[in-house]
UniProtKB/TrEMBL annotation:
<dbReference type="InterPro" id="IPR012338">
    <property type="entry name" value="Beta-lactam/transpept-like"/>
</dbReference>
<keyword id="KW-1003">Cell membrane</keyword>
<protein>
    <submittedName>
        <fullName>Penicillin-binding protein transpeptidase</fullName>
    </submittedName>
</protein>
<feature type="transmembrane region" description="Helical">
    <location>
        <begin position="21"/>
        <end position="43"/>
    </location>
</feature>
<comment type="similarity">
    <text>Belongs to the transpeptidase family.</text>
</comment>
<keyword id="KW-1133">Transmembrane helix</keyword>
<dbReference type="InterPro" id="IPR001460">
    <property type="entry name" value="PCN-bd_Tpept"/>
</dbReference>
<dbReference type="GO" id="GO:0071555">
    <property type="term" value="P:cell wall organization"/>
</dbReference>
<dbReference type="InterPro" id="IPR005311">
    <property type="entry name" value="PBP_dimer"/>
</dbReference>
<keyword id="KW-0961">Cell wall biogenesis/degradation</keyword>
<feature type="domain" description="Penicillin-binding protein dimerisation">
    <location>
        <begin position="67"/>
        <end position="302"/>
    </location>
</feature>
<keyword id="KW-0133">Cell shape</keyword>
<dbReference type="GO" id="GO:0008360">
    <property type="term" value="P:regulation of cell shape"/>
</dbReference>
<dbReference type="InterPro" id="IPR036138">
    <property type="entry name" value="PBP_dimer_sf"/>
</dbReference>
<dbReference type="GO" id="GO:0005886">
    <property type="term" value="C:plasma membrane"/>
</dbReference>
<dbReference type="Pfam" id="PF03717">
    <property type="entry name" value="PBP_dimer"/>
</dbReference>
<dbReference type="GO" id="GO:0071972">
    <property type="term" value="F:peptidoglycan L,D-transpeptidase activity"/>
</dbReference>
C-alpha cells in the first residue's frame, strides 16, 4: 500500500509539471500566427494598398444617347409643311444592374406625382407589377395547389397566369397608373432613357417631380418632340407618319432598327417620305457620359455632345397651292354624287418632273362619306378612256402604219363578229367623215384608233367579218404606251405606287384589243397620265416625277439652311419620234381645245389663259352592276412652251356626266396661275 501511494504521488507531480509547458506552447503558436498575420497585413498594405483603395473608389464610364429634333419638311417656297413641337417630358434613365424591386419603389413614388395614360397597359404588365411586391407574390403562390413542386421560374409563371385572370376592376386607377410607369421603366435597357410621359405634362407634375428627384433614382425632367402640321394633316398622305412613345418601333422592323442603334421608344419614320428619308431626317443623338461608382450608382453626368438636329427636306410642292388643290378636288367630288368613288389630280412641271401639287379623295357611294387620299394619285388604277389616244397615235406613227403626211382614215362604225363599236358622234354611221391623225384627236375618234390597232396587228378589216387579228397586237400597243409611262411605274420618290392593271390578252380576248386602242380596257394611275402628258409636252423625255427638291441644313434662326444635296431630273427614256411626228400629236391636242371641228371635245377649256392643249377622256364603266362613266383629262400650258401639266380622273360618275373634268381643270389652272406663277411671267 505504501509503495503504491508513492508511485501515485510521483505521477501527479509529473502532470502538474507539464501543464505550464503546454500553455507556453500555445502562447508561442498564437504569437507566431499573430506575427504572421501582421506581416501579411503589412505586406498587403505596402504592396497592394493603392490597388485596393482604387477598387473602393472605382468608377466606370458609359455613354447615354439622347434624342434630338427630326429634320422638318418645307414646301418649295420655304414654308413649313411638317414641323416639330417641343414638350416637357418625364424621363427615366435605367442604371446598371437595377433590381426590379428598386424600379417598383421608384414607380410607386413617381405615380404619386404623375398621371399617365393606362390605355396600353396589358394584363401581363399589370401582373408583373403586382407580383413585384414580394408579399403579393407570396400570397398568390400560396393559393396555387402543389406550388412547391415547381421550379422558381415555373412558380412565377403560374403566379402570373393566376393574376392575369383577375378582373381589371379589381385593380384601382392608382395601381394601373403605377403599373404603366413600372412597365415603361422595365422596358428600358441598361443606361438607356425612356419617356414616362411626353404629352400634356402639367406644370404641377414638373414641379412635383423636380422637387423629389433625389428620392427617385433615374427619373428626370426632359424634352420630347412630336410632329405638327401647319397646313393640316392631309399632307401626311405624301410625307408619311412617325412613330411615338405609344406606338414604339414598328413591329416588323424592330430588330433591324435596334441593330442600327435605335431605342425602343425612339421616333422613326413609318411610311412614305418620313421612312424613305429616315437617315436624313433622324439627326445625330446627343451623348452624355455617365460615371458610375463601385456600387453601380450614377456618380456624375457630363454632356459630351449636344446632338445634331436632322437635316430638312425641301419639297417641290407649293403648300398654298396644294391646300387649294385638295380643296378643289374635295368640292368636285362633293358635287359628283351617284356612284362616284373619288377624284384625283396631279399638277407637275413637265420639264423636270417636279410635283407642284397632288390631291385626291375617296368617296363611299353608300354613305357619301369623303376621305382624303392623296396617294390615290399613285395607287388607284382607273380605266381612263380617250385621254390615252395621244399615245396611241404616237405609237402608230412610230410603227409607220401612218405618217405625218399620210394619216387620213374614214371614221365609221367597226363591226366584227356581230359586235359594233363606234365613235361617240357616229353611232349609226351617219357622220362618216375623213379625219387625219390630228383631227382624230380633236374629235376623239374611237373608230380611228381601232383602225390603227388593226393596222399595227397587220389585219385587213372587212366589215362584219371575224376579227382574226393576232394577239401580239396587245404587246405592240402596250409597248408604245409604256414608253410614255402608261402601264409602268413612273418612278416617283414615294413608295407604294401601282403599275396599273392590264386586261387579259390572247385570242379569246382579241376584241378587247380594239377597246385598248381608245383607252377603255387597261387601267392607269393619275400620276401615269401626268407623266405621259409631260412626255409629249417636253419633246419626248419621260422624266421621273419627284416631290423632294433638295436636302438642306438648318440655319441659326431655325429656318432652311444651306443646300446639301439637290434632286436632279432623271430621264427614264426618250421617245424616238421625229419633230414632224411629234407635231402631229401636239397639233391634235391643241385642236381639242381650239380647233374648228363641230365635234371637238375640249372647247369648254378655250377660256383658260394662257392657252392650253389637252385630251379629254370618257370611259364606259360599271360600279356594283350599275353603269357609270369615268371622266379624265390630261393637259399642258402654255401650248407654245409648256411649263405645267394638269392631269385628273373622276371615276364612276353618273352616265350623264359630261364636263365635270373640264370644270375642275379650269379651276385648277386658275389657282395655279394665281398662286404658283403669275401669268405675267409667261411669254
Amino acid at each position: 500500500m505504501k509503495i503504491f501511494k508513492k508511485r501515485n504521488k510521483k505521477t501527479n507531480k509529473g502532470k502538474a509539471a507539464s501543464l505550464p509547458f503546454r500553455i507556453n506552447i500555445i502562447f508561442i503558436v498564437v504569437g507566431i500566427l499573430f506575427v504572421a498575420l501582421l506581416t501579411q497585413l503589412a505586406y498587403l498594405q505596402v504592396m497592394y494598398g493603392s490597388k485596393f483603395k482604387a477598387e473602393v473608389n472605382r468608377s466606370d464610364t458609359s455613354v447615354v444617347n439622347g434624342n434630338v429634333q427630326r429634320g422638318m419638311l418645307f414646301d418649295s417656297t420655304g414654308h413649313v409643311l411638317v414641323g416639330n413641337s417641343a414638350h416637357q417630358a418625364i424621363i427615366y434613365t435605367k442604371g446598371v444592374n437595377v433590381l426590379t424591386s428598386d424600379m417598383y419603389k421608384t414607380a410607386n413614388k413617381l405615380a404619386q406625382y404623375v398621371t399617365v395614360s393606362t390605355g396600353s397597359l396589358t394584363h401581363r404588365q399589370l401582373a408583373d407589377y403586382y407580383l413585384s411586391d414580394q408579399s403579393n407574390l407570396a400570397k398568390v403562390e400560396k393559393s396555387i395547389p402543389g406550388i412547391s413542386n415547381y421550379s422558381l421560374d415555373a412558380k412565377y409563371n403560374k403566379a402570373v397566369d393566376k393574376v392575369e385572370k383577375y378582373p381589371a376592376s379589381s385593380f384601382s386607377a392608382a395601381t394601373k397608373n403605377a403599373a404603366t410607369i413600372f412597365a415603361k421603366m422595365s422596358g428600358a435597357y441598361q443606361l438607356s432613357t425612356v419617356n414616362i410621359k411626353d404629352d400634356h405634362v402639367s406644370t404641377k407634375e414638373v414641379a412635383m417631380v423636380g422637387e423629389h428627384l433625389a428620392d427617385m433614382p433615374g427619373v428626370n425632367v426632359g424634352t420630347s418632340w412630336s410632329r405638327n402640321y401647319p397646313n393640316g394633316r392631309a399632307i401626311q398622305g405624301i410625307t408619311g407618319t412617325v412613330s411615338n412613345e405609344k406606338t414604339g418601333l414598328p413591329s416588323d422592323r424592330v430588330n433591324e432598327l435596334l441593330a442600327e442603334g435605335y431605342s425602343r421608344n425612339d421616333s422613326v419614320g413609318q411610311s412614305y417620305l418620313e421612312r424613305q428619308y429616315e437617315p436624313v431626317l433622324r439627326g445625330t443623338k446627343s451623348q452624355t457620359q455617365i460615371v458610375l461608382n463601385s456600387d453601380n450608382q450614377i456618380k456624375k453626368e457630363i454632356k459630351k455632345y449636344g446632338g445634331q438636329k436632322g437635316d430638312n427636306l425641301q419639297l417641290t410642292i407649293n403648300a398654298k397651292f396644294q391646300k387649294q388643290l385638295q380643296s378643289l378636288v374635295h368640292s368636285a367630288e362633293s358635287g359628283a354624287g351617284g356612284n362616284s368613288t373619288g377624284t384625283y389630280a396631279v399638277v407637275m412641271n413637265p420639264n423636270n418632273g417636279a410635283i407642284i401639287g397632288m390631291a385626291g379623295v375617296d368617296r363611299n357611294p353608300k354613305t357619301s362619306k369623303i376621305t382624303d387620299n392623296i396617294l390615290g394619285t399613285i395607287n388607284s388604277s382607273i380605266v381612263m378612256g380617250s385621254v390615252v389616244k395621244g399615245a396611241m397615235v404616237s405609237g402608230a406613227l412610230m410603227d409607220h402604219v401612218i405618217t405625218p403626211t399620210n394619216s387620213t382614215l374614214t371614221d365609221q362604225p367597226i363591226t366584227t363578229g356581230g359586235v359594233k363599236k363606234s365613235s361617240w358622234f357616229n353611232h349609226n354611221g351617219h357622220a362618216n367623215i375623213s379625219v387625219d391623225a390630228s383631227d382624230a384627236l380633236q374629235v376623239s375618234s374611237n373608230s380611228y384608233m381601232m383602225q390603227l390597232a388593226m393596222k399595227e396587228g397587220h389585219f385587213n378589216y372587212v366589215e362584219g367579218g371575224a376579227l382574226t387579228m393576232k394577239p401580239g397586237v396587245f404587246n405592240t400597243m402596250r409597248g408604245y404606251f409604256n414608253q410614255f409611262g402608261l402601264g409602268v411605274k413612273t418612278g416617283i420618290d414615294i413608295p407604294g405606287e401601282s403599275t396599273g392593271l392590264q386586261g387579259k390578252s390572247g385570242y379569246s380576248h382579241i376584241g378587247s384589243a380594239l377597246d385598248l386602242s381608245f383607252g377603255n380596257y387597261d387601267a392607269y394611275t393619275t400620276m401615269q397620265v401626268a407623266q405621259y402628258m409631260s412626255t409629249i409636252a417636253n419633246g419626248g423625255y419621260r422624266i421621273e416625277p419627284h416631290v423632294v427638291q433638295a436636302i438642306r441644313g438648318t440655319s441659326k434662326d431655325g429656318k432652311l439652311g444651306t443646300v446639301k444635296a439637290t434632286v436632279m431630273p432623271t430621264v427614264l427614256n426618250h421617245i424616238d419620234m421625229t419633230k414632224a411626228e411629234r407635231n402631229v400629236v401636239k397639233t391634235g391636242l391643241y385642236r381639242v381645245v381650239h380647233g374648228t371641228n363641230t365635234y371637238k371635245t375640249g372647247g369648254e377649256l378655250d377660256t383658260i389663259k394662257p392657252e392650253i392643249s389637252a385630251k379629254t377622256g370618257t370611259a364606259q364603266t360599271f360600279y356594283n352592276g350599275n353603269e357609270t362613266v369615268t371622266l379624265s383629262l390630261a393637259s399642258y400650258a402654255p401650248s407654245s412652251h409648256p411649263q405645267v401639266v394638269v392631269a385628273l380622273a373622276m371615276p364612276n360618275l353618273g352616265v350623264n356626266a359630261e364636263s365635270n373634268n373640264m370644270q375642275l381643270a379650269k379651276q385648277i389652272y386658275s389657282a395655279y396661275w394665281k398662286t404658283v406663277e403669275s401669268t405675267s411671267t409667261v411669254k
